[in-house]
Every structure is written in C-alpha cells, then in structure tokens.
C-alpha cells in the first residue's frame, strides 16, 4: 500500500510577516521558509502508518520553484521514502494544485492521500476537498484521529465538528486532511538528514502531467490589518457599561 502526502513550502510560522511596498503580496525574499505545520502533521501520520506495517511506502509531493526541493529533503529526513517535485514558477491556487495531485495519483496509484487541512500562508482549506471531488474518492477532513484497517480496505477518521466529534468510515482509496490535534510531528535526526541526501526526488512539470496552470483568482491588494487601539482604564462599572454600549457596539 502506498500513501501520498502533499507538503507545501511556506513562510516559517515564527517569522513576522511584512507586506510588499507595492501591496501585491507578502515579502518572501531573504525570509525563512519551512514546511507548512499542517503538512508536517500529515507526513507524521503517514510515517506512523507505515511504521505500524499497514503501508509499504510514503511518497511526498511538493509544487513550486526549485527551492521546494529543500522542503522535500526535510520530509525525506523525517522518514518519507521518496519525493516528487512539480516544478513551476506560476502561482498555484487550490484548483490547480488539486488537478496536479490528481495527475500524480493517476501515475503513482496510492491508496491514501493525506494532506494538511490548510496552509498557513493563504488559509484556503480547499485543496483536499477539490482533489477528492476530482478523484471521486471519499474524504475525511479535519482529522483528529486516523485508524487504518488494511484487511477491510477502509480507514476510520474522527473529525472535530461544532457539536463535538464525528466518526467517519471511508473505503479506500480516500483523501484525509489533518487537524492540529492528530499528532506531534517528529524532528529529523542528523543520521536521517544525511540519508535524505541520497533519496530519490523525481521531477515533473505541469506540461508533462498534462495540466494547464491558470489563475482563477486575482489578488487586488494585500494590506496589513489595522493596528489595535490601546486599552483604557475605567473607574466604575457604569463607565464600563457606557463604553461597551457606545463604543463597542454592544446592545
């Protein structure tokens, strides 16, 4: 059984984001980049399934410029078996990513696709649902627990919903998107980092996968959120209620 994991290279979560002067996006030049945290969780879950003997291979996929290879090497050092890089300089929106993933799945034939529920750079939370729709596969989104039953060729997913937990049983092949509470990703050890340098990374282009990249969204302007006003001290409950009613739009 193969598991495919999609990983994305994003601005590191600890970096203070700066908007470009022309307001076309955020500054990425000379900025620390890393693997999307939700993708780390997806990869950790795939590796745990393989280590339990319920899968034979974990394949990681990243899409974007040449620098994505560094992110793939990180994933290989964590324990993935091999990597695939779809190289493109085009801006990739969820539908394009979903089409590329579908094309790769048609080539690799994995039984399970695991990916983060969203990326911290754009927060779309759409790609997993779109690729499941394109493949006509069942999907379990926001997974907080995953149990694979190899004999029944099914996977049970606990997912967090507004009312608590929902449990889904999906026939394989399936798509799973991961939530924060699914697991704690491991750190790559030095020996594994060295081994990752010799692991295979196969390259494709969108043209080789017969996928046309086109922008279905237009970014008009990127601006920073308004700065919060400083708090004020009030001398009485009556003054607090007055401010809440007249300044905070509380009725």
Automatic annotation (TrEMBL):
Gene Ontology terms describing biological process:
amino acid catabolic process; fatty acid beta-oxidation using acyl-CoA dehydrogenase
- Which Gene3D superfamilies does the entry mention? HUPs
Residues in Electron transfer flavoprotein alpha/beta-subunit N-terminal domain copies: 23-213
| Keyword annotations | Electron transport, Mitochondrion, Transport
Name its cellular compartments: Mitochondrion matrix
Read off the InterPro entries from this record.
ET-Flavoprotein_bsu_CS (IPR000049), ETF_a/b_N (IPR014730), ETF_b (IPR012255), ETF_beta_N (IPR033948), Rossmann-like_a/b/a_fold (IPR014729)
Q: Molecular function terms in GO for this entry?
A: electron transfer activity
Q: CDD domains from the entry?
A: ETF_beta
* Matching SUPFAM superfamilies: Adenine nucleotide alpha hydrolases-like
What GO CC annotations are associated with the protein? mitochondrial matrix
Q: Which PANTHER family has this protein been placed in? A: ELECTRON TRANSFER FLAVOPROTEIN BETA-SUBUNIT, ELECTRON TRANSFER FLAVOPROTEIN SUBUNIT BETA
User: What is this protein's function?
Assistant: The electron transfer flavoprotein serves as a specific electron acceptor for several dehydrogenases, including five acyl-CoA dehydrogenases, glutaryl-CoA and sarcosine dehydrogenase. It transfers the electrons to the main mitochondrial respiratory chain via ETF-ubiquinone oxidoreductase (ETF dehydrogenase).
Assembly information from the UniProt record: Heterodimer of an alpha and a beta subunit.
The UniProt entry's sequence similarity note says: Belongs to the ETF beta-subunit/FixA family.
Q: What is this protein called?
A: Electron transfer flavoprotein subunit beta
User: What is the protein's species of origin?
Assistant: Actinidia chinensis var. chinensis (Chinese soft-hair kiwi)
Cite the source lineage.
Answer: Eukaryota, Viridiplantae, Streptophyta, Embryophyta, Tracheophyta
């Amino acid at each position: 059984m193969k598991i495919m994991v999609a990983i994305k290279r994003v601005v590191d979560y600890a970096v203070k984001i700066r908007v470009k002067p022309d307001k076309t996006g955020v500054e990425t030049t000379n900025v620390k980049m890393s693997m999307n945290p939700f993708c780390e969780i997806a990869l950790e879950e795939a590796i745990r399934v393989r280590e339990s003997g319920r899968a034979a291979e974990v394949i990681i996929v990243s899409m974007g410029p040449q620098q994505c290879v560094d992110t793939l090497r990180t994933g290989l050092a964590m324990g993935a078996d091999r990597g695939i890089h779809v190289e493109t300089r085009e801006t990739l929106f969820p539908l394009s990513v979903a089409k590329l993933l579908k094309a790769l799945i048609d080539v690799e034939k994995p039984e399970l696709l695991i990916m983060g529920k969203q990326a911290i750079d754009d927060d779309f939370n759409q790609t997993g649902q779109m690729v499941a729709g394109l493949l006509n596969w069942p999907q379990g989104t926001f997974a907080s627990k995953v149990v694979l039953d190899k004999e029944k060729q099914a996977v049970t997913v606990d997912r967090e919903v507004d009312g608590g937990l929902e449990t889904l049983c999906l026939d394989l092949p399936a798509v799973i998107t991961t939530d924060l509470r699914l697991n704690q990703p491991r750190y790559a050890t030095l020996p594994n980092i060295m081994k990752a340098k010799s692991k295979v990374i196969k390259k494709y282009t969108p043209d080789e996968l017969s996928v046309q990249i086109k922008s279905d969204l237009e970014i008009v302007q990127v601006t920073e959120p308004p700065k919060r006003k400083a708090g004020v001290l009030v001398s009485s409950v009556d003054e607090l209620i007055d401010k809440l009613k007249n300044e905070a739009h509380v009725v």
